[in-house]
Design a protein that fits this description.
Layout lengths: L4 E7 L2 E8 L2 E6 L4 E7 L26 E2 L11 H4 L20 E8 L2 E8 L13 E9 L3 E9 L5 E3 L1 E8 L7 E3 L5 E4 L5 E4 L4 E2 L4 E6 L4 E6 L4 E8 L3 E6 L1 H7 L11 E8 L5 E3 L4 E12 L1
The structure holds 6-O-phosphono-alpha-D-glucopyranose.
The site of 6-O-phosphono-alpha-D-glucopyranose has 10 residues, from strand 19 and strand 20.
Amino acid sequence: MSTPNVEAVKLDELNCWRIRHGQAELLVAQQGAHILSYQVAGQPPLIWLNDEAVFKAGKSIRAGVPVCWPWFGNLARNPQSVQAMRISSEPAAPHGLVRAIDWELGGIEAEGESLKIEFLLPCPEGGLPGWPHKVDLKLSIRLDEQLHISLTSHNQGTDTVTISQALHSYFAVSDVRNVHVEGLDGLSYIETLDDWKTVTQSGDLHFTGETDRIYLDTPTQLSIVDPSWERRIELTSSGSRSAVIWNPWTERAAAFSDMADDGWQRMLCIETANVMGDVVALAPGASHTLGVSIGSKVL
Ligand SMILES: O=P(O)(O)OC[C@H]1O[C@H](O)[C@H](O)[C@@H](O)[C@@H]1O
């Protein structure tokens, strides 16, 4: 294994690090502890860096792996226990409070054959804006033959805190219309594009239009099969029993100022999550770790 190679780079307004270790190359921003891309030598990227993503201070980035925390999506669609954690009359930002703020780089160090990168977000005194709880966050990234991401929430306060969350990973695909997801057959999902009805998945998931679904009771392993790129991306989750699968397709992508009109063809989000009945209630002193390991195999 070669020596880790870390280069500080600036992408427009954001401090980032380009990290090379063995066959892997990772680009990560301080804002949001946001992985922007991940590639293994000789393969197309695994994590998608949208060419039109915007790197501005305080603006969330539409690419890579945004961290959604302490709620996922629209707060009003979350269980009451998650909504009750927020005390504010201002509208709630979608996907929570930590994806557009700076985290602290805890360290980048070799650990045996792997390389570990740690970001910390100690909870400020009084909590985050409109969210008065004392929960410390840590995002650990480990590079070996795979990319391992884990997000640990540690309740340092005296009351139970309930959160929903996701590692909102954008995967790079040859063309979303020609890939499918395995591991979902027989699961229930919430079809958010049809009045949040609960539906049962039959067979593998193929993509023929805008997709925004919350899969429930998910297994630990899901995979994206991409015949044109002759690869299978394998996702192995931990601390999670739900996943969100999203592709904006034509009209929604065209409405985004930070995605090319045809950008939707090259990405697919599978978001390792704790949402709906899978939200996390953290007792005082308790911790929870949400994790995903990402690797690929030749088909
Ligand atoms: O536009 P953003 O806030 O980054 O959210 C992007 C998407 O994230 C998730 O996948 C949600 O399920 C979608 O409804 C949402 O559109």
